[in-house]
Each structure stands twice: as C-alpha cells, then as structure tokens.
Amino acid sequence: MNPPAIAIDGPAASGKSTVAKLIAKELGYTFINTGAMYRAVTWYTLQQGINPADTEAVKALLPTIPLSFGKDGSVSTVLFEGRVLTSELTEKSTNDNVSAIASIPEVRALLVAKQREYNTKEAVVMEGRDIGTVVFPDTPFKYFVTASEEVRAARRAAEGITDSIAERDKKDSQRACAPLKQAEDAMLVDTSDMTIEQVVAFIVADINKKLA
Ligand code: DC
After folding, report:
1. Quick one: which atom of ligand 1 is closest to the CA of 172?
2. Is the separation of the CB atoms in 19 and 30 below 8 Å?
C-alpha cells in the first residue's frame, strides 16, 4: 500500500497552494504542485512555436519532451534540461494557454502517471484540479478548497498577478477530460472568511483524526 496522499483541489487563487504547502510542512510530507506540471508543458509548447490549440502537434511533442519532475527538499520542482523552471511558469502567455494544454487527454495521462509516481515512496500533499477525482480517487483525504470569486480576485491582485481566473476556471470546469469538480467524498472548505492558519488547522485536524 502507498503512503498517505492528501488531495487538495479547487479553483484558481482559492489559496489552495499556500494551504497545501503549509499542511505538507506540518505533517512532514512532500508538497506537489501539479499546476506547475501543466504550466511547464504549456511553456515548452509555446517555446517550440506550437499553437496549444493544435492538439496533434502538442501530442507529437510529448514522447520526447525534455521536462523532468523532481524535488527540492520536500517541494516538487519541474526541470527543463536540468534547470528548475520558475518565472516561466507564471508568464502571461503560460497563464493564457494552460487551460488549452490541460484539456488534452494525452497530456493529462502523462502527468497523472508522474504524479502517482511521487506517492509510491512517500506521503504527499498534492494540489490541483483532479487529484481527488482522478489521481487518487481512493484516498480518504480529499479537500475541495474554494473562496468567493471576489475574494479570489482580490487575493490575486494583492499578489500583483493579473490573470483572468474566472475564464480559466470556466474552461477548466467545462472540459471533457478530468474537469475541475469536487469529488463526491471530498470535504468542502470555503476559505472566504477564514485565515490561512485557520484553514490549515482545520484540514490537519481532519487528517489526524482519520489517521488515528
Ligand atoms: O493551479 P494552477 O493555477 O497553477 O494551475 C494551472 C492550470 O493547470 C489550471 O488552470 C488548470 C490546469 N490544471 C489541471 O488541469 N489539473 C491539475 N491537476 C492542475 C492544474
């Protein structure tokens, strides 16, 4: 049996990344940011001059894509030719095209396999859109972290990021393959009126109760 896998899903800018990272730290588990993996494929596709809407061309790239998925301490990283990708992953062009890339089933199959690999040897807190529904459907630890659209837009603006999150969420929720949705057995955590510390404490308490 694999070590525990904590699934944290939710829309863009719901705070799930910050929360997932802190939960991982508190439990001593590895934090895996799966959005970064979809972003890296998007960035590389654009680098190659390929239109993300050209599904066949994107699929043709996948077998030889020079990306690898590693760790820096207890945090996941994405590497391109051995170099850790950082600012490339939040460039405007990456933001604008990541939903198109993430809607391609072959891209998802490749990345889901890599995501599951992380959990074969170690306990993980994994953050994304389909972790509870597709990546780890059998885990008892599923949390759907959300916040009102106003709160999410304000949080993004405070970070200085201008990204059309409403449009991205719409695309991510409406795609045919592994759409953004709450797993039936996931616990809904609305963070609109909660501090980060409260959210982390609430989820960690639930995990510890289930582990006991
Ligand atoms: O979490 P994020 O905003 O960095 O994710 C970027 C995009 O990647 C998001 O708009 C949809 C896609 N994504 C996905 O489809 N499935 C995941 N597990 C994680 C991200």
Report:
1. 11
2. no
Atom of ligand 1 nearest to the CA of 103: 15
- State whether the beta carbon of 155 lies less than 6 angstroms from ligand 1: no
Provide the 10 A C-beta neighbour count for residue 35. Answer: 17
On whether the pTM is more than 0.90, the answer is: yes
Nearest CA to ligand 1 atom 11: 99
State the pairing for strand pair 187-190/142-146: parallel
pLDDT digits (tens, 9 = 90+) for 36-94: 999 999 999 999 999 999 999 999 999 999 999 999 999 999 999 999 999 999 999 99
12 lines ligand 1 (CB under 6 A): yes
CA distance 8 to 71: 19
The residues near 212 (Cβ < 8 Å, ≥ 6 apart) are none
Q: Ligand 1 pocket test: pick from 129, 146, 156, 182 the residue with the most ligand atoms within 8 Å of its Cβ.
A: 129
Q: Using an 8 Å Cβ cutoff, are 153 and 161 in contact?
A: no
Distance CA 147, CA 128 (A): 15
